[in-house]
From TrEMBL:
Domain Methyltransferase type stretches: 73-167
InterPro entries for the chain: Erg6_SMT_methyltransf (IPR050447), Methyltransf_11 (IPR013216), SAM-dependent_MTases_sf (IPR029063)
Species in which this protein is naturally found: candidate division WOR-3 bacterium
Record lineage: Bacteria, Bacteria division WOR-3
Name by which UniProt lists this protein: Class I SAM-dependent methyltransferase
Coiled coil residues, start to end: none
Pfam families according to UniProt: Methyltransf_11
Annotated keywords: Methyltransferase, Transferase
Amino acid sequence: MPKTYSELENWIVSEVHPTLSNSVEQTYERLERVRTKMPGIDVPQDLTNEEHFIEEAIIQDLLVHLYGCERVLDVGCGDGWPGLRLARYLPSVTGIDASVRRTTVAAENARRLGLKNVTISQMSVIELDFDNDSFDGVVVVNALEQTTDPYQALREIFRVLKPGGRVRIYFEASEDTEKGTSERIFTTETERSLGYHYVLKHHRPPWERNYLIEFAPTPEMKEEFRRLNELIKRIGEVPTQASEIGINFIKQNRANIKGSSWYEIEHFTSETMRDTLEEVGFSKAQIIYSAGTFARRLLPNISGQGFSSGQLQAICQGLAVLSRNIFAPPASGEPVTAIKPERG
């Protein structure tokens, strides 16, 4: 199927000539933080907050699927979620990420939280520096599709899992029923350049292309980016809805462009994730509802009823136990669990 190209994308490709890159170099090494105010890591947890409640349910979901695991690998740990949260319940957690900047932040967060059972290493999942059969549990949360070779990443995860070990994979679900595309922009800043990021996402079939245009960090361009960020906050991040944050901004500041890069991501669906795990050699690959899905649906019905923090946490734990055995449809976007078969 031919892929759609937007007006802004066509201009970038024809006028700036971006070079091929990857998500680590183009995006994650440039971000000061992937997420700010992570509950239980950056800020105290408040389970009356919707985001905190759903994330607690996801943590409990992962714990249920990791029950009995003693050495767990968090692939694509980012700034420390979910590995640092899981470490409070597990004997040992190892977090790995291909980005130096992300592992630096995660290691500092672990140190600040006093977590002695956490190891953070800069490492690519497509070439893991671990012996065979090193872990009895692996979690991957919205990271697999960001690798340059997701299939090799799954083969490596299979290799380092012990026989009988389990993997639970969340991914950036692309189960949209609507066709078409969506787009957004965001900015970054490093000592070397000011970054204008353009993301074009296609829903069916699921893929996205990411572009970075680097501008010289002169005082004048920093002022231009300050105004751009104010506009994004005021009118939104969709460039086709406002040319002053889209193609007009780039054209007006073209003289300050230093370079450009791009990369493409092919997204999984629940069905393709399950099937790929089976192809790699996993058994019992199953699409199982996340407790976070049920938490999102339940919260409006229990909000304002005076539940204590302990009671809300118990509800999250109960949802995790409940959802553990509820299979989800192939087009649900729900996470997938699988087991490495025992030998013989």
